[in-house]
Amino acid sequence: MDFWSRLVGGSGRPNKQASPKQASPQQRLDRFKRVCSAVLQTCSRPQQLGQPGAHVEQLVLDLGHLSTLLREELRSPAPYTCLSFAAANQIYGVIGRAASACKDERIILEAVTVFSILIDSEMEGFVSNRSFARALMRFSMRVLDSGHSYVSTETESQLVEVLFNIAAKIRLEPEILSVWFAPSGRTENEETFVREKKSFVGITQKDDFPLCYLFMDRVHHEGRIGDFARTGLLYIFESASRSVALDQWIVASDLPTLMASALGALYSQLSRELSLLRDTNDLPLLLAMSDYTDSNQDTGVETIASESHKAHMATFLSDLTFWQDILDHCRSVDVKQTLLDHFQILFLQQLLYPSLIQSSDTDGGSSVAVMTYLSSILQTLTDEGLANMLLTYLLGTQTPQPTPPARPASPSVMRRRSSLMIITAPPTEEERYEPSLFNLVDLIHNGLQSRNQQTTFAALKLFTTILTLQPSHALGSLVRLDADHRNMPDRIVGALDVESRNLMHIAASIGGTDGLNEAFDGVSQDVRKSLDANMFRHVQSAHTIDSRNNSIVLSDAQRTVSRCRLNLNDTGTKALMRLVRNFLSNSVDTNLALTETIIAICMSISIDVSDLIAIRPDRYNIPADNGGHCNIPPPLKSSWMDPEETDALQSLLSVARVPTLTSSNTPIMLATLRIVEVQVSHLRQSLSRFDALLSKRKSIIQTPEQTDALFATPVKAKIRQRPMTPAQTISRHASPETLQLRIRFDFSGKVAAIVPPKPLETSRVPSRVRGSPAGFASRATQQGESVPAFESSRNSSVAPGAAAEEEDKARNEDVTVVDDDDDDKGGDKEEPLREVSLSHVLTNIVVLQNFVLELVAVLQLRARVYEGEYAFLIWWSGGEVSCSSQDSHE
Length: 890
Known about the structure:
By secondary structure, the protein is mainly alpha-helical.
């Protein structure tokens, strides 16, 4: 058959090569012994290992061969003679000593490989062997803690990974902990213990548990080294709950002190002064169409966008996250309490609070820095213990009576806390600072009232963060509430209709009706998602949610709406309303943060929005018909219905009655927005093309991709050859002189004057803002670009003629249009005026209209999501008839 196969196929099949014969266990052992003998012979002369030569090269080859033989044995069936020989002769000890003495990275790497193979083999009990543990720890400490850089980052990461594997095995096999952890057993009566405890608040005992300290020294490293070190230390703290000896050792050791000190050191690396200034080359569209660049001068302070700040902030927040992971995985009551004590005393009281009380709004932005850092900290914290401790202390609130733990803290924990407090106590009583003197509430309220827009922005962001993530701490401190009014009448659907219509009228009056319905639809979707998330957070903080009871708990919570109203006389509330009155002259980013804060307040299920954006039920001004009873509509007759049906219908009609707004019952937000509406009306009367400019601004913001379509200039291609700033892009949608008009506001928010741009303003503009709309306008005009007229005749409104001034005064007494000469001759004012460009005001008006639409959406959707918000339910024949708010409103 082979003959015919070769004949037909043309060539025969190649002969199969015989597979090499697998070595027997004895043959493997013989080869392993020969290599071990060579290694031992080389290592028998330790004085030569530190010098380069042929013996070092041979040792590298022998160790590599040794690793190959061990891997080959692990792939072979039992018995494992090589592993048994290595365990019996403790070859790992010789290899570790040789590698640490040689200081050659290649030999160290081969030694790490040998240790890794022996650990992963899970045979011969290497991990549970005390001699193996001592050899590995001695080798690791000499390589990693020698103070000299003998190895690269890659080799170090491989060695730390080997140590991490040990920690993982200790976590899975708690019985082997005693092999790697050997407490010295010193008692508190010993003189050494007492001396160290008084001087350092903890005992440094690296020899007791070197694995733990090797991890501790590397938890702040980046990359794989830091990841392995943090996770390894996490496993060790997790094992404390299963070992009384380890539990007591951690409490008495300096590990909590080192962790708290490291966190404080990373916080201290953050800049004391911080600027929130964005990169002018990468501004968002809203900020680019405002006075952001002109009003935010570079002061030389480190900015939030700098790479150094980002790196330091990421490192600090990473360590804070590590703290949370430790507390989350630690099941030991004593260890967890010791960590919390160190966090509070060494970090919170000794570092974080002093930075808060020493912050200032006049030294370049230290208040901005502190509030920005606190916002980032609170956004990172998910551990309730840390968050509660931090806010309870910084807000100066009364500490609630804690629930007694299952087991009280041990005497050693109490002694440790007492030692910390004694050591960190100030030398004199005058140097002691407590949050009762100045706390986070004072800092935020001062920030809300600051004339520094960055400080106000930082305060608003911190306010919103606390209210959203920790509402239980915000209510009563940041947000002052009146008493719970359970006897207050129910709110009715007719009032919702009045409130919504008035707010919608303001939105249309401020920004026009173009695209109003589409904008409201988009806003409503966002608000609904936020309300649902807010409801779930509220329920999650008060109940345990699982797949069995979540629908029941959510349904109950929807019917439980707070009757606690916002205290309108509170400093924070007054500051927020003042910012709303100055909405047109505020910076755009401040307004965005302001709207976020107010919407967060209005969305809170723990706050009754009566007096804020809704009419108080006890102040409804409803015309009564027939002695307070509602008439049945003409198509229906009472004779057609039973008495129960008549009563039910009258109850339904009473809920739909429409109250009348008066000066005594108008919500404060509605009244404040009407003030801003008057300001916009003044501008509209003073500027003939105001509505056209506003319409163009809305179209740009709502559809940025259509910006190019609005350009209609013959020199567009020439200008596009040069990089264009956002300000240059925007200036081409209207007269440059129009957009550079300066609108002056006093600090009550009232429009004080409209000042035309100076004729030669562009020649005096610094190079930093040469791309301003005015500068672009002059270039465009020189190249023949058509400029739309601002007024039918510019001189009729801004010329220094007396007739023009009288005409403007007659048109609106509250708005004074002055020329530049009059401005220079003006006397000193008691209060400095805020001066912004018309372009800035237009952008703020668009933001304001969107904000008012959000308020309408919140009002209507609260009625849908929070079922206890309005009186919708009527009783009819013992049954319950539901009437939804949306149906009633429609």
